[in-house]
Amino acid sequence: MLNEDASVQIKYWGVRGSLPSPLDPRDYRSRIQEVLKRSKSAWKENPDLSEEAMFDSLPPYLAGVVGGDTTCVELRSGEEQLIFDLGTGARRLGYDMLARGHKGDLHVLMTHTHWDHIQGWPFFAPGFIPGNHVHFHSCIPDCEQRFTRQQEFEYFPLAFKDMQAERTFHTYDQGDSFDIGSFKVKTEALIHPGGSTSYRVDQGKKTFIFATDTEFYGPELKALIKKKKPFFKGADLLVMDAQYSLKESEQKIGWGHTAMVIAVDCAIEWGVKKLALTHHEPAHDDASTYRLFEEALEHNRQYGDALEITLARQGEVMDI
Q1: What's the mean pLDDT when you consider all of the chain?
Q2: Domain for residue 160, yes or no?
Q3: Residue 8 lies inside a defined structural domain of this protein
Q4: Beta bridge partners of 219
Q5: How many structural domains compose the chain?
Q6: Nearest one of 196, 106, 114, 195 to 150, comparing CA atoms
Q7: What phi and psi values does residue 53 have, to the nearest 5 degrees?
Q8: Structural domain boundaries enclosing 223
Q9: Residue of 5 and 271 predicted with greater confidence
Q10: Which of 52, 74, 140, 303 is the most exposed place for a label (fewest CB within 10 A)?
Q11: How far apart (Å, rounded) are the C-alpha atoms in residues 68 and 137?
Q12: What average pLDDT does this structure show over 236-246?
């Protein structure tokens, strides 16, 4: 029997868009220098200030990292699990699953197969374990062929067919619904070059929506937001593509991504309770990403802080 109050956790294993972007050595050095400068000033003013208090006083872009791995998000509720996309963040997820002793069936919901959403699969340890059964769910009729081509010998030394876990591909039409364990999943088409799929996952009274690689922009924006409202309405947590600044979205029409402030507009119109901004632009360092996040927070304040907004960061865990 389903426990409607069961805990649902989301963990971000990869939040970067387009391609992996590890911390640059020059950026790392400049961060260390700024932390030392701030620490020197703080301890001069208060010699008894603890290291922990000093760390807590740092701005977010110095106290942690947004993360450089590409899209991979895990949903867990009790013993049940869903995985959204297999970007480079899937490598760390796979090791974590081995450490937890996860065996048997696992379910991957694929939004689309651009490189930044599938590159982690050949390094996903559970895919090499005999007895595991990986179920790929998507609205991509030739999804298996796409994964196979990624591991042709010219591009990768081990073929897709040589990975020892059993693999099954489940294909749906956009708009279809299906069940995975206690999760009720519904699909929705998104605007993105080559297409992309959003997933709405309902379990009891809780709703999670994953909507990366989608473009909300242009003269028909208000009509598009309204059209999509039935699918997105009232989600407890929406994880949404927010790769661009508003200026970048104007310059990159047709590239398939959304500005942070427009993601805020969407979530407010849809009555979402919490919005997590993700798929961060690889050309933005963490300070730039946080500046865009501050703009999104200021935009939300114009609505009277109608929405709870977070910046998706690699390694972060959120409860629904």
Answers
A1: 96
A2: yes
A3: no
A4: none
A5: 1
A6: 114
A7: -65, -35
A8: 14-319
A9: 271
A10: 52
A11: 25
A12: 98
268 and 306 in contact (C-beta within 8 Å)?
A: yes
Per-residue pLDDT reduced to its tens digit, 63-88? 999 999 999 999 999 999 999 999 99
Q: Position of tokens 């963040």?
A: 89
Provide the token pair at 22: 């590890």
The answer to whether position 1 is within a domain reads no
Query: Residue 116: which CATH number?
Result: 3.60.15.10
With 50 as the cut, is the pLDDT of residue 1 above it? no
Amino acid at 92: R
Whole-number pLDDT of residue 6: 74
Do residues 1 and 228 lie in contact, with contact meaning Cβ atoms separated by under 8 Å? no
What's the mean pLDDT in 250-262? 97
Does residue 3 register a pLDDT over 80?
no
Residues 99/72, Cβ–Cβ less than 8 Å: no
Q: Is residue 256 part of a domain?
A: yes
CA dist., res. 185 & res. 203, Å (int): 9
